[in-house]
Amino acid sequence: MGWTVRDIPDLRGRTVVVTGAGGGPGLVTARELARHGAHTILACRERRRGARALERLLAQVPEARAELRLLDLADLSSVRAFAAGYGDRPLDVLINNAGPAPVAYGRTADGFETRFGVHHLGHFALTGLLLDQLLATPGARVVTVSSLLRLAGSGALDPERRYRRWRVYSRSKAANLLFTHELARRARAAGADLLAAAVHPGFAETDPGGEEARGAEGGTGQRIARTAHRLFAAGPEAGATPILYAATAPDVAADSFTGPGVPAGRRLRGGPGAGWRAPWTRRDEPAERLWRRSEELTGVRYEALPPVPARPQS
Question: Which residue ranges are recorded for the region named Disordered (predicted)?
């Protein structure tokens, strides 16, 4: 029998931050980690939605040690405020889950295209600003949620040459894999006890963007996508399973990519297994190039994890 949430170990004494915990797999992930004893921080953009999520979590797990903290990944000042408010306490697991739906073109408070700004740049900044707390915690993990749609992404870093919402969304999710690769590479070279892994929830009802997605305009493609999700997508419980596995299972490898089902992650549902990823998302040069550009755009630098020479491409 494959891995299930019943295999989550006792997490008492550990602290976890889950971004985008206001609904969907993010909330399920926060709930199950809290159920198993972790002090769980729900990092949410909207206070009302976050408060409702926390209320639901506590109704299902009355003994949970859980709290709500506001975090808007589309605003780097909010990311900095969240990190400053976190303080110096240890951080065992950071789950980079939040992200808006592939809706109409928009910009973050700092002028970045919204999908790329939130999915990648916001989480890049958050991870870097919490890096000291992660490195001070033995066995800490950074789990970044990508998507099945990363298959439509490419090696290009500029998402705005010609705006196509699904392609931009895919590129931002491919950036999650490049970020994970470079974070794992730097942690390994520095001898840091930090595991970086990526996941995708499969074809699950992820509720991306929450109210933003539901209120957004959309053409035929958007309506088809919503209908497909309504008819065929698994629930958020299924989408959370690969995330929970990557966050807690003892056999998770650095720079791994977990999704539902085996073999080779080709099933859209089922228990966690190895997910397929484009070979270029494991190459050092594009990952290091994205990292440098991300530092320039966010102003966040990972001083404790210095650059590593790229391996020659075969």
Answer: 263-282
CA angle, residues 191, 192, 196, in degrees to nearest 5: 120
Nearest to 206 by CA among 176, 233, 170: 233
Report residue 265 as tokens: 């992650």
Is the peptide bond preceding residue 306 cis, with omega within 30 degrees of 0? no
Is the pLDDT score of 186 beyond 50?
Answer: yes
Residue 251: helix, strand or coil by DSSP?
coil
Q: What domains can be seen in the chain, in order of their start residue?
A: 10-298 (3.40.50.720)
Q: Is residue 24 a contact partner of residue 236, using CB atoms and an 8 Å limit? A: yes
What does pTM read for this prediction? 0.87
What does the DSSP assignment read for 117-179? IIIIIIHHHHHHHTHHHHHTSTTEEEEEE--GGGGG--S---TTSS--HHHHHHHHHHHHHHH
Average of per-residue pLDDT across 67-71: 98
Tell me the pLDDT tens digit for each residue of 92-101: 999 999 876 6
SS3 for 292? helix
8 A C-beta contact, residue 206 and residue 154: no
As annotated, the active-site residues are 169
Which contiguous run of DSSP H or E holds residue 15? strand 15-19
24: CB partners within 8 A, 6+ apart:
204, 205, 206, 207, 208, 236, 239
Q: What is the radius of gyration, based on Cα positions, of the chain?
A: 18
CB 204 within 8 A of CB 239: yes
